[in-house]
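seq as requested:
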Amino acid sequence: MSRHVWRWTIAWLAIVAPAWAAAQEPGAEAPWENLITGDTLAGWVQRGGKAEYRVENGEIVGRSVPGTPNSFLCTERIFGDFELELEFKVDPRLNSGVQIRSNSVPGYRDGVVHGYQVEIDPSERSWTGGIYDESRRGWLFSLEGKEAARQAFRQGQWNKLRVVAAGDSLKTWVNDVPAADLADALTRTGFIALQVHATQETEPLEVRWRNIRVRDLGVPTSRPPTGALVLLGASGDLSAWEHADKPGATVQWKFRDGALEIEPGTGNLVTKRAFGDFQLHVEFNVDDSGKPGQANGNSGVYLQRRYEIQILNSCGQEPADNICGAIYKVKAGDFNMALPAGQWQTYDITFRAARWDAAGNKTGNARVTVYHNGTRIHDDVEIPGPTGAGAPEAPTDGPLLLQDHGHRVRFRNIWILPLDRTPAHKAGGSR
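C-alpha cells:
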C-alpha cells in the first residue's frame, strides 16, 4: 500500500467511524425476547438439508439425517446489532453451530445459507465459540492457542453461549469464558439459525438448544444518525426533491402506502441540494414486468448525478455489471444479494467524491463502498468517470438522482449524512 493510499485510508476512517458509531446507538432499554415460543417452531424456517427439528419440553431438538447437507433452522426475522444468549447440549459425535448475520438469497450459490457461524465443536479440537464463515471464507477466528476458551466447553452437559454483535464487532463467550473477538465488516445484517451438520453416521445424533433469548438492538443504518438529512421519510414530505428537467415543478411521482413510487414517464428526480462526500441509506422495492433483462424493474441511484448504482429485478442471476447492485458498466457486485420483486431491499453507500486541484484538473477518482441488503458488495471501488446516463464530472458537488426508467419502482426511508473532506484533499484544491 502506497503512503498516499495509506494516509487517505486513515483519514477516511477517521471520518466514517464516528458517523457509523453515531448511527448505531441502540435503545438503552431494548427488551430480552424468547425465540422459543410454545411447543411449535413458529417464527422459524428450515433451509438447506433435511435434518429433523422439533420442540420438546421447551427445547429445540435437531436430529441428524445421514446423507443430507448441512441443515439450518432460521429465524424469519432479520437482525443487525444484538445480544444473544442460549444453552446447548450436543452429542460428542455431531458438529453443530449457531449462525448469526446469515443470509440465503437465490443469487448466491442457489440460496445456500451463508454467513458467520459460532462453532459448536465437541471434537478434541474444542473450538466451540470460534467463528467460521459458513459457505464463504472459512475460519475467521479459531480458538487455536486460546486454552481457557477451549477448556470452557463441557462435554455431554448443558453449555451457555453468549454472542454480542455491534457494528463490525462480533464477540462470543462459552460458559462465561471469553472466546472469539472478531472485527469483520462483510455482513451487517441477517438471520439467526441453528445448524445440524451433515454426517455419515447411520445412527441419528441430536443437538439441543434451550433458553434462547435475544436483545434486538436494531439495524443501525435504518435510523438516520445525528447530523443526517432525511430526504424521504414516513410523512411523504417531498420538499427535498424536484424533477431533473423541470426545476421547481411539483413532483409527479406518487407517495402512497408509506413509499414514493415512480410515475413512469414523468422524469428523474434530483435533490435540490448538492453533496460531496457522504453516507447514504436507500430502501427500494422493484416491480416485476415479466420482461427480460433491463426491461424488468429498472431504476438507479445516481451519486452526484454522475455515478449509477443500478436497481433491477435480477434476483437469482449471476453477478454482472448491469444488474442490481452493480456500479453500472464499471463493476459487478462481489455477490448478487438481490431479493425477489416485491420485497424491500437496502443500499448503504459510503461515497468519496472525485478530487480536483485549484486549476480544475482531476487528481483522484470517485470511490464508493456499497452494502446491498446488509452485505458488502463493493469495497472502496474506484469509479473512473460518469456511468450510463450520468452527468459530466466537474469540480463541483452534485445532487442525488433517482432514475425514472419507465418502471414502477418504489422508494422509502432515504437519508444522507454529509461528510467533511479530509484536510489532505482540501489542501490539494478540492472544492
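Residues 1-27, 423-431 have pLDDT under 50 and may be disordered.
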